[in-house]
What does this fold into?
Amino acid sequence: MRAYRLTMGGGIDGIVAVEEPEPTAGPGQVKVRVRATSLNYRDLGMVRNPRQGAIVPLSDGAGEVVEVGAGVTRWKAGDRVMGCFFPYWEDGPVTPEHTRASLGGVTTDGMLAEQVVLPEGAVVRTPEHLTDVEASALPCAALTAWNSMFEAYKLVPGATVLLLGTGGVSIAGLQFAQAAGARTIITSSSDEKLEQVADMGADDTVNYKDDPDWEQQVLKLTDGRGVDLVLEVGGEATFAKSMAATRIGGHIASIGGLGRVDENAPRLPMIGRNAEVVRMAVGSRAMFERMNRAIEHRQIHPVVDRVFGFNVAQDAYRYLQSQQHIGKIVITIA
Ligand SMILES: NC(=O)c1ccc[n+]([C@@H]2O[C@H](COP(=O)([O-])OP(=O)(O)OC[C@H]3O[C@@H](n4cnc5c(N)ncnc54)[C@H](OP(=O)(O)O)[C@@H]3O)[C@@H](O)[C@H]2O)c1
It folds into this structure.
């Protein structure tokens, strides 16, 4: 079968195509024929990480079960499934044991292969209304947004959510906030992208590049009160401003590191806003299943910006790096 593997510290050019024997499903495992896989910001870090092993990259994938190992009860050949970002986090609060491995992480093979073998508890059923391309967008970015809004925090209708930039997590957050009847304010470096997210139904938009004091705009848009919840994907570049844009007693889902984390900057405004900050770690299989029920019920289709063929996987990484996308980038495996 065909797959890609990373070369230690080799960057995007170090993602190499390989031909390997087909894997077989052992006891308690399922073999999945992967049809589509999506990229996350994290995957750029993986190709640069000098500690990275020669693994198959990418955490997110969707396809169908083609073989089940001894003792597997949940799945049969033909079932359409998606992989879970943390294959050993089935339910309950996050623990180091749950997050000891992540698909496409330092030591664990991911989904950029024609076939993968996973524990039976590390896949979930694909909602019927989604194509494999759409489903492949869900396991990391969408689940992180879901967890931030409905598991770690209880978003209620009428609350205001601040979304930073138009990447995978933020666009999934936009869709979930709309489905929940929340008000959305979204930022971007691009007016063109802001027009597109306004067409998708974002209530208010702010260009953070044109206006470096974008948090003041957010405050103005909320009559000086601040937002109830921020999906904080920026890290050092945005954290203090996100805090300033949050209402007293509000909530910050600390998700990202689009910049380095600054230990000092957030402390003072955090005290000032009396806000609650929770660090996110994608989510469990049980959360993934709850999210999928909502996606199915509201017939939500993830936003896929562009689809690349398997033979040009490196081009998909370069496109991700260029930050031209809105939502998700997908690689199909024909
Ligand atoms: N903790 C977790 O569990 C978890 C899970 C998933 C993701 N993450 C992290 O969350 C972050 C986002 O991931 P992703 O996959 O959604 O990324 P992505 O799709 O690559 O998003 C990139 C977009 O982020 C926006 N951006 C970049 N710098 C920004 C800034 N200074 N202020 C506001 N927006 C900025 C840009 O949007 P515009 O072009 O519109 O400006 C850019 O296009 C990453 O740091 C990722 O590692 C963490």
Remarks:
- Residues 153-279 form a domain with the Rossmann fold fold (CATH 3.40.50.720).
- Residues 40-42, 140-141, 144, 164-169, 187-190, 193, 208, 233-234, 237-238, 255-258, 280-282, 320, 323 surround NAP (CB under 6 Å).
